[in-house]
Amino acid sequence: MSGHVAVLGAGSWGTAFAKVLADAGNEVTIWSRREQVAATIRSTGTNPDYLPGLRLPANVTATADAGKAVSGAWLVVLAVPSQTLRGNLAEWTGFLAPDATLVSLMKGIELGTTKRMSQVIVETAGVAADRVVVVSGPNLAPEIAAGQPAATVVACTDTDRATLVQNAVTTSYFRPYTNGDVIGTELGGAVKNVIALAYGIATAMRLGDNTKATLITRGLAETARLGVALGADPLTFAGLAGLGDLVATCTSPLSRNRTFGEHLGRGETLEQAQVATRQTAEGSRAAWPSVTWPGPTGWRCRSPSRSSGSATRASTPGWR
Ligand SMILES: NC(=O)C1=CN([C@@H]2O[C@H](COP(=O)(O)OP(=O)(O)OC[C@H]3O[C@@H](n4cnc5c(N)ncnc54)[C@H](O)[C@@H]3O)[C@@H](O)[C@H]2O)C=CC1
Ligand SMILES: O=C(CO)COP(=O)(O)O
């Protein structure tokens, strides 16, 4: 495919993914919410707030003008926090080329609707589901920015479109595998964030490896059961978008979700953990949906919601 590609979101994953796209031979324009970040990327080829040490290739530029970034792009990559996607995309939809492929990098579920990101994209942009591609796997942005070997899953209900995106993001250090299971690929990425919070809490509490192995194993079993109930292929959870991402996120000190959990495990409040983690920890929004996260009104709780479900029983059928 020729023409330029757009990455909307200049955080750590948007920026690292822009490097992957550029290394794969694409002309890339990053959209940043803040003009100052865009100007720094343009003038220095760096994004020090998110990925200090990364030098972006020359075929990456940046703008704070979404229309300019998206106009004429055949591939539009969405890399904003999950809870802001609907609002952001509503503003960008008018700029999208009629046949553009939309790629979701986000690993979250929309609060209030419990929709996956690809569903939010279909609804908000008014595009067919087969124009939306999900990229998810064990992809810690700083490692990929450093060119360390990694693999990912490129999921789409349209096999040809998945292959197109696979080709557009293949580099010597980044190996994408296609999959038709969009539901499982997205759920694996979203649910592992919550399990990584628990893993971080356990780590800070100095709990042992038996505990942590149990969290990963039972967490995966629960994710797979949820996924199957929602229409996913259980095998997806045994792959990169399931087990792979769960292991990377739980065990890496680079993970914001695990780090957030570690702060809580040391006895800090949600606010302290948020301030210390700085970047997007999607699992925190999912695990505490009743909390209103910082905004103009500061911190407060909506009516507390308590789960009425019983604890998972050892007799539950399925993976043990
Ligand atoms: N960082 C990573 O290693 C990976 C992240 N992801 C996923 O990618 C998504 C984006 O995460 P990151 O880039 O890591 O987050 P980040 O916290 O590094 O960056 C978020 C970006 O979104 C911008 N932003 C914040 N609020 C916004 C708003 N209201 N409207 C528009 N933009 C806004 C920020 O300015 C920043 O540029 C998340 O869903 C995350 O789970 C997926 C794989 C790897
Ligand atoms: O999704 C990720 C790795 O695959 C990144 O995890 P964190 O958002 O916890 O840093």
Automatic annotation (TrEMBL):
<keyword id="KW-0560">Oxidoreductase</keyword>
<dbReference type="GO" id="GO:0046168">
    <property type="term" value="P:glycerol-3-phosphate catabolic process"/>
</dbReference>
<feature type="binding site">
    <location>
        <position position="34"/>
    </location>
    <ligand>
        <name>NADPH</name>
    </ligand>
</feature>
<feature type="binding site">
    <location>
        <position position="256"/>
    </location>
    <ligand>
        <name>NADPH</name>
    </ligand>
</feature>
<comment type="function">
    <text>Catalyzes the reduction of the glycolytic intermediate dihydroxyacetone phosphate (DHAP) to sn-glycerol 3-phosphate (G3P), the key precursor for phospholipid synthesis.</text>
</comment>
<dbReference type="InterPro" id="IPR013328">
    <property type="entry name" value="6PGD_dom2"/>
</dbReference>
<comment type="pathway">
    <text>Membrane lipid metabolism; glycerophospholipid metabolism.</text>
</comment>
<feature type="binding site">
    <location>
        <position position="137"/>
    </location>
    <ligand>
        <name>sn-glycerol 3-phosphate</name>
    </ligand>
</feature>
<feature type="binding site">
    <location>
        <position position="50"/>
    </location>
    <ligand>
        <name>NADPH</name>
    </ligand>
</feature>
<feature type="binding site">
    <location>
        <begin position="9"/>
        <end position="14"/>
    </location>
    <ligand>
        <name>NAD(+)</name>
    </ligand>
</feature>
<keyword id="KW-1208">Phospholipid metabolism</keyword>
<feature type="compositionally biased region" description="Low complexity">
    <location>
        <begin position="304"/>
        <end position="320"/>
    </location>
</feature>
<feature type="binding site">
    <location>
        <position position="107"/>
    </location>
    <ligand>
        <name>sn-glycerol 3-phosphate</name>
    </ligand>
</feature>
<dbReference type="GO" id="GO:0005975">
    <property type="term" value="P:carbohydrate metabolic process"/>
</dbReference>
<dbReference type="GO" id="GO:0008654">
    <property type="term" value="P:phospholipid biosynthetic process"/>
</dbReference>
<feature type="binding site">
    <location>
        <position position="33"/>
    </location>
    <ligand>
        <name>NADPH</name>
    </ligand>
</feature>
<keyword id="KW-0443">Lipid metabolism</keyword>
<keyword id="KW-0594">Phospholipid biosynthesis</keyword>
<feature type="binding site">
    <location>
        <position position="257"/>
    </location>
    <ligand>
        <name>sn-glycerol 3-phosphate</name>
    </ligand>
</feature>
<feature type="binding site">
    <location>
        <position position="13"/>
    </location>
    <ligand>
        <name>NADPH</name>
    </ligand>
</feature>
<keyword id="KW-0521">NADP</keyword>
<dbReference type="InterPro" id="IPR008927">
    <property type="entry name" value="6-PGluconate_DH-like_C_sf"/>
</dbReference>
<feature type="binding site">
    <location>
        <position position="192"/>
    </location>
    <ligand>
        <name>sn-glycerol 3-phosphate</name>
    </ligand>
</feature>
<keyword id="KW-0444">Lipid biosynthesis</keyword>
<feature type="binding site">
    <location>
        <position position="256"/>
    </location>
    <ligand>
        <name>NAD(+)</name>
    </ligand>
</feature>
<dbReference type="GO" id="GO:0006650">
    <property type="term" value="P:glycerophospholipid metabolic process"/>
</dbReference>
<dbReference type="InterPro" id="IPR006109">
    <property type="entry name" value="G3P_DH_NAD-dep_C"/>
</dbReference>
<comment type="similarity">
    <text>Belongs to the NAD-dependent glycerol-3-phosphate dehydrogenase family.</text>
</comment>
<feature type="binding site">
    <location>
        <position position="107"/>
    </location>
    <ligand>
        <name>NADPH</name>
    </ligand>
</feature>
<feature type="domain" description="Glycerol-3-phosphate dehydrogenase NAD-dependent C-terminal">
    <location>
        <begin position="181"/>
        <end position="287"/>
    </location>
</feature>
<feature type="binding site">
    <location>
        <position position="12"/>
    </location>
    <ligand>
        <name>NADPH</name>
    </ligand>
</feature>
<feature type="binding site">
    <location>
        <position position="141"/>
    </location>
    <ligand>
        <name>NAD(+)</name>
    </ligand>
</feature>
<feature type="binding site">
    <location>
        <position position="255"/>
    </location>
    <ligand>
        <name>sn-glycerol 3-phosphate</name>
    </ligand>
</feature>
<protein>
    <recommendedName>
        <fullName>Glycerol-3-phosphate dehydrogenase [NAD(P)+]</fullName>
        <ecNumber>1.1.1.94</ecNumber>
    </recommendedName>
</protein>
<keyword id="KW-0547">Nucleotide-binding</keyword>
<dbReference type="InterPro" id="IPR011128">
    <property type="entry name" value="G3P_DH_NAD-dep_N"/>
</dbReference>
<feature type="active site" description="Proton acceptor">
    <location>
        <position position="192"/>
    </location>
</feature>
<feature type="binding site">
    <location>
        <begin position="256"/>
        <end position="257"/>
    </location>
    <ligand>
        <name>substrate</name>
    </ligand>
</feature>
<feature type="binding site">
    <location>
        <position position="256"/>
    </location>
    <ligand>
        <name>sn-glycerol 3-phosphate</name>
    </ligand>
</feature>
<dbReference type="InterPro" id="IPR036291">
    <property type="entry name" value="NAD(P)-bd_dom_sf"/>
</dbReference>
<dbReference type="GO" id="GO:0051287">
    <property type="term" value="F:NAD binding"/>
</dbReference>
<dbReference type="Pfam" id="PF01210">
    <property type="entry name" value="NAD_Gly3P_dh_N"/>
</dbReference>
